[in-house]
Amino acid sequence: MADAPRHVFLVDGSGFIFRAFHGLPPMTRPDGTPVNAVYGFTTMLMKLLDDTDADHVAVIFDAARKSFRNNIYPAYKAHRPPAPEELVPQFPLIREAVRAFNVPSVEMDGFEADDLIATYTAQAVAAGARVTIVSSDKDLMQLVGDGVTMLDTLKNRTIGVAEVAEKFGVAPDRVVDVQALCGDSADNVPGVPGIGIKTAAQLIAEYGDLDTLLARAGEIKQPKRRETLLENADAARMSRELVRLKTDVPGVEPLSGFAKRRADPAELAAFLAAQGFKSLMARLGVKAHAPQQPPDAAPVPETPPPVERVTQDYELVTSADALARWIEAATAAGIVALDTETTGLDPLSAELVGVSLAVAPGRACYIPVKHTTGEAQGSLLLGDAGAPKAPDILPRAHTLAALAPLLADRSVLKVGHNIKYDLQVLAQAGLSVAPIDDTMLLSYVQDGGSHGHGLDELAQLHCGHTNIPFSAVCGSGKNMITFDRVPLDKALAYAAEDADITLRLHGFLKARLLAERMVTVYETLERPLVPVVVAMEAAGIKVDGAVLAGLSSEFGGRIDLLEAEIQDLAGTAFNVGSPQQLGKVLFEDMALPGGKKTKTGQWGTGADVLEELAAQGHVLPARVLDWRQLSKLKSTYTDALQAQVNPRTGRVHTSYALAVTTTGRLSSSDPNLQNIPIRTEEGRKIRTAFVATPGHTLLSADYSQIELRLVAHVAGIKGLIEAFHHGDDIHAITASQVFGVPVEGIDPGLRRRAKAINFGIIYGISAFGLANQLGISNGEAKTYIEAYFARYPEIRTFMETTKEEARAKGFVVTPFGRKVWTPGIKDKNGALRAFAERAAINGPIQGGAADIIKRAMIRLPGELAAAGLTARMLLQVHDELVFEVPEGEIDATARLVKQVMEQAASLSVPLVVETGTGPSWALAH
């Protein structure tokens, strides 16, 4: 049959919705309706439709909270909270989005989306089609098998039989049995108390299936396990019915109705315009008369109309003469845009595949360095033995040697987009690059959080141009190839276009700097920071694998002991990680006081509840807190960090994102070294694994109370300014002045409350928030805040003035000129508006702190070199810098670092830096 499906894409719509909602900050469309989930869902759907080769596509939604499973077990999903208030109006808009893209959608009362996906999967497999389920939901993993895979779009990971077995310890056809045993606290599936996934998998592997296990449960040697299985056999069988997906939902529309079809441009444009998604309209190349921006919307920088179409004149450089001609053209122009293509995303391990250059709009080239594919037809060239061989391209050594003088020529400006990556890749190839400009940072400095700063989005926004997607060149998912295997004609079109668009963007964005008074922020903060961060990332920090392994083993052993102790204290086996089961143990079985049920009828077991019970002397909740903390530390840090050590260097090399945060802070990832907990003894132990190389010591330099100092400075708080100049205990001074008591011998409790107010003010804390933090009444908290404002009236003036500035401009400005955008500052939703107001108050403070440490980071490498010191800056963790210092240079380096950091800015209060040294990060800080 001509229209028989070959590849069916089934999208878990509900999963997409919640991922989009929680992954994006609040956004509103022109009429004030929240649309962050709509925007995220729309962009994900666009990418899916663009990337997939499927001929049949459908989005599957949940119709209602109740399903046939509630007839089996009324408490099924009963404890799930209602959808967030800001998400509810977005559900119908998301369904409109699906219709606008002309994609079929399905939902059915009485059945969950997972059941419909299971039914359509069965139909597709029966028709001989391949199925991709777009979801990471573990409940759908039971469907994986021959011809059926899952796609986790967040991690760009295909989930097949091996991945399911890795997660559940069994093949997909036995996942239901494992889930029946371990239950699911998220869906309120009871399972068998005390049995987790690992134990369940062992039992199913040993006995074959759930029915056999339950029939032979009396043979199990472990007394507790045997008894709990015998007692809960019916619960296990019922749980299996709850987790088993229906593959025969009656009355579903036929699979043939999912045939992929084009969207109507007019309908799609009308939908996007109604939501105010101008950047998506530009990306898709659709036009419509969008509604007027309301007066309460944050102003978006003016963008020019799409430029006239530029003729693309791209050349593949495979001869020495051609390469020399392009280098000469770049030198004569005095400016060249460049981009690198590589075999991967990690700049320390990726191989350089090629370099593209652009010297004028539309005029660019691609210089292949490492390719195994042939000419324009894309066929592989085969050697005598039938193995792929490199096409006729210049030798790598010749290309790099020819490019080196151009890249180092101080008279030629090199422009890149996220040029940090290109600098790292080229450095691995032995090439240095200077001077530089970065179109990503030019955009970030001027437009901040008003839109994203990826090359594709900026090309649409400012050039009216749609870039060739990476997937069109390299494929996606399991079919993705590395760039060195891309045919040269495709490589030329893709790579040269990136350099071309980068050069075009540079012309527009650089011209805006002066008009928008952002030259100083770009030239003194962002651009000079790039090579500093490149050096930090390349240096990395040494990690002692043995220490990490020892901590993982220690934490694992303590977790097991704690779990056993908790179950002994409870007098029953239960899943310690299940809030529902824990709540039952605490407030029903043990009848502990103070239990409160949530709106869904489930006992609250959050950290605040457990901490209150522990403070009353109850042992079990205290042990659960210990168990939670250790479990988090083990999985997130000691286990994960071991896998992130670079085998070549023996160090971890975090990546710092330069254009992500709204306040200008750097953001660490892969691994994130800015979130290692240090407030607990166990958390601090993790930093013991970060060590100096032999003959060196780690130096930590940390700004003391920098955000409080900035509050005093920007608000002009005379009392705090004076206290900082005298070097007084700022919290004791605040307690004295607010509560009217002598500063000498101040009561520690009053000082603690003053400290909470001091730091809370930075984040616009409310009386309710302060009351929760201090364990006092709302009235008492309000009295404290009013007393604080009465003593420091300048702070209230600053807060109100800052909010007014945000409402008028859509952003606030740090003391150093950085714009911090505040979307939602006039939102009709009170909660969203209050969140934006707190962000506005905090923006000049946290953004100012980010600017100050950046100023110090930029100065330090030169100052160290001028002093003949060889210390290397390794990490930036918010207000702290970490260095690796030769043992003979410790004192001199510490003095110089402290001096440079304290002189990084001139404020009305002194900046104070505290330093520490030691063989490990833990001992240095």
Automatic annotation (TrEMBL):
The keyword Nucleotide-binding does not apply. Keywords: DNA damage, DNA repair, DNA replication, DNA-binding, DNA-directed DNA polymerase, Exonuclease, Hydrolase, Nuclease, Nucleotidyltransferase, Transferase. InterPro entries: 3'-5'_exonuclease_dom (IPR002562), 5-3_exonucl_a-hlix_arch_N (IPR020046), 5-3_exonuclease (IPR002421), 5-3_exonuclease_C_sf (IPR036279), DNA-dir_DNA_pol_A_CS (IPR019760), DNA-dir_DNA_pol_A_palm_dom (IPR001098), DNA/RNA_pol_sf (IPR043502), DNA_polI_H3TH (IPR020045). It catalyses: DNA(n) + a 2'-deoxyribonucleoside 5'-triphosphate = DNA(n+1) + diphosphate. GO terms for molecular function: 3'-5' exonuclease activity; 5'-3' exonuclease activity; DNA binding; DNA-directed DNA polymerase activity. It is an enzyme of class 2 (transferase). One of its GO terms (biological process) is double-strand break repair. Residues 683-889 form the DNA-directed DNA polymerase family A palm domain. Residues 292-307 have a biased composition (Pro residues). Pfam families: 5_3_exonuc, 5_3_exonuc_N, DNA_pol_A, DNA_pol_A_exo1. Its EC number is 2.7.7.7. Residues 6-261 form the 5'-3' exonuclease domain. SMART domains: 35EXOc, 53EXOc, HhH2, POLAc. Residues 288-307 are annotated as: Disordered. Gene3D superfamilies: 3.30.70.370, 5' to 3' exonuclease, C-terminal subdomain, 5'-nuclease, Ribonuclease H-like superfamily/Ribonuclease H, Taq DNA Polymerase, Chain T, domain 4. Residues 314-514 form the 3'-5' exonuclease domain. The keyword Magnesium does not apply. SUPFAM superfamilies: 5' to 3' exonuclease, C-terminal subdomain, DNA/RNA polymerases, PIN domain-like, Ribonuclease H-like. NCBIfam families: pola, PRK05755.1. Belongs to the DNA polymerase type-A family. PANTHER family: DNA POLYMERASE I (PTHR10133), DNA POLYMERASE NU (PTHR10133:SF27). In addition to polymerase activity, this DNA polymerase exhibits 3'-5' and 5'-3' exonuclease activity. Single-chain monomer with multiple functions. This is DNA polymerase I. It comes from Magnetospirillum moscoviense. The gene is polA.
